[in-house]
Structures are given as C-alpha cells and as structure tokens.
Amino acid sequence: MQKLQHSGFKDEDLPVCIKSDKICKINSDSPLECFADWKSIDIDSFCQKQWIFLAPVFHESKFIYGFDGKHRLPYLSAEQPGDGSGHFGEVRKLQLHFAHFHKGESAKILSGGSFDVAVKRLFQNDQQTDVQKFYEKEKHTLETMKELNNKHLIKAIATYTKGNDKYFLFPWANGGNLQDMLQSNQGTLDKDLVAWVLDQIVGLSEAIWALHDKKIRHGDIKPSNILCSGPGTGITNESTLIIADVGLAKQHVEYTRYRNSTTTTRHGSITYEPPEVSPKRQLKTLSRNYDIWSLGCVFLELIIWAVYGVHGTKSFHGHLSQNSNARFWEEVGSGGTEQIHSAVGTWIKKLRGDLNGSSAFSDVIELIEKKLLIISDKKRADSMAVVKSLKKIQGKASETDYLFSPELERLATSRRLSASDGSVTQDVVNPSTQMRISPTHGFQGY
To answer: Where would I find the Protein kinase domain in this sequence (predicted)?
Structure first.
C-alpha cells in the first residue's frame, strides 16, 4: 500500500481491472505502472477485493449514477423489510448509511447511523427496448420532480444502473400510503381534520399543475401511489401527502397499447382511470387532463373518508364494485354511453345533502362534480383552473363556519356517538336495488 501511495495512486483511481495481464483503470487501456512488479496472484486478489472498499456516496446535487455489477452499495437491512413487487419491478425497504449520503439539513439520521430508503429495481424482460425507453423517461421525470422541489412530489435520491440492472432510490415514507390511511385510520372529524384535508387537496393539485407545466403527465394517480410522510406514522393532521410512482406502468402501457399484436391487458388499478381509456375511443395519445379525472376520484374518496370515516370509504367502494370494473364511470345502454357511475352520483348527492349549505367541503364537492369528474376530457378543467378554484376556497377557509360548518359539527357528533356505542351510521341506499349497503363490505377499489 505504501508503494501505491508513493506512486500517487488514490481512491479516485479505483476501480481497476485486468487488461492483457496488466492492471488498468476501468475506463482506460493504459497500464498502471505502480502495479508493474506485482505477482499475478496479488493482482487477482486486489481486483477481487477492491469492491469491498468502493461503496459509493450519493450526493444531493447529483442524480444519475452508473456502477459496475460488482459494486457493493452501502445498504443495511431494515428491521421491517417491507418488500413488495409488482409487474414492472420490486421495492425493498433498506437502510442507507448516513456517511454515504451527502444531504442538506433536512436529513434525519436515525439510530444506528442510517435512515430508511426504498430501493426499486426494474425487472428485465424480453422487450428490453421498451424497458430502456420508459426507464429513460422515468429517469427524466424523477429528475424534473426533484428540481421542482415541491413538498407534495416525491424527491428521488438517485437513479443508477448496476451492471445491467436499473434502480431508483427514494426516501422511505414511514406513514405508508393514502390507501392505508383510508382503510384503517378512522380519523376524528373536527376543524383541524377539515383544514388538513383542504390543505392536502390544494397541495396535491399544485403539484400536478407543476408537473403539467413541465409537459409531464403522471398517468397513475391513486391512493396507493400517494405517500404519507411526516411526523408520526401517517397520522392525519401531521403528515404530508406526496405523489409518487410516476409513470413506469403508464409508459409501459403507452408503448404497448397500439402494437399490431398487443394484448389488451392493462396493469395497475383501473378504478381511477378516466373514460378516455375506453377501447372504443382508440386514442393513441392521452392528454394531461387524464390526471384531473384521477384527482377528482381521489379527492372525492378523501372527503368521504373525512366526513364518514373508514366505514364510509368501505361502503362507497362496496357500492362502486357492483360494477365489474369498479370505476368511477360506467357504460350504459346498447351503445355503451359513458356516464358517471351511479354510486359516485349517489354519494355526491348524499354529501351535498348532509353538508347542506356553503362550506369548504361542499364547494370542493361542487368543483369535483362540475369540473373534474367530467366525461369529456376536453371539457374537463385543466390543472391551472383547478388550482385557482381551490385557492379561492382555501382563501375563505379562515371563516370558522365556512371551514367547519354547523352541519359538519352535527355529523362529527353523530360519528362520535356511533363509535362510542359500537353502532354504524351513514349507510347509503343503493338506488338500483333499494338495498342497504353494509359498511363492513370489503374495500374493493384497488
């Protein structure tokens, strides 16, 4: 080692490799003279063991990395791995040692000198050209999102290749996702919850507007793709909702949808997809107003949860799932005319009746009904118009009765009483059958 130091060999010169029985830098054919008198067995040993000392350091100012397949990355196993996989990749919960991440003051170092991260590996398949294309698009999108620095958009730490594999590295959201919250967190209907929901709706809309301004369509907005991050573990009024998982599935679908021999199989949830995905429309491109429909679905579900609790969201999805596709729209008649799903119309009517008057939530519901959940994407509001309308509502929310109206107070009291005696209220009558929908029906919207 002393000879290497005397010859000026530094860590930055690693890794090295053997070329024509000589040691060279991995990106050069020029032999390194400091290894000239080394024995072959020592050269082999050095080349094999060097990787132990080459764990890379990620920098906040750099996003794209390329590593040799033999590189060892500075990950530790998490106490609760939280591994999961889908059609396009797998996600593992790991820990990144803080010494290998140069970040600003926002970094929170957990005990043991590491913090939780999500490592997403993209599956390799037989269609490598397509995989490479949407990997490049996703890489560009995530880099743009990081530059936007919007608190409601996921900020990827890095993307990297390791050998032939492709990875994305994200901070881990300890609060889970919005779907988890809607299914399991009952919440407490009060002024703070209403203010939090309104703030999140405005923030998510602003985040999508920022993406659209960069000519980026998310394409897969749904509760499971919205993370809860912040103090606690996703507890309402504390967490920030963050849009994540932009586009891998969407881009795969777009590349394969109109091939001559393409399958009609679509991956991911269809619940939050807009009517323009209907095969009969045969659209080769989809507008950014695709996202507006999906936002309308998520916002409606979020308000149902805030007003009626977990039983409300389960009952809503039980009603929605009576349609085999469980979408927010349906086709009716012999011609397959597209219209708002009857369950959506019923719940909007119920909310209007229960809220009964001018309030922040009732105005958001009106916006959802008249501007977001519109069958024609051309008549649907764009993201800028949505944000402007929501900001007006938010601007009036300083008025206590507008934010938390007497009607909401009565609903909150009813919820507390039903929770204390174990009974369940807020069932909804299915207009097609006049049968009451059990609020314990399984959540089937995902």
So the answer is: 77-403
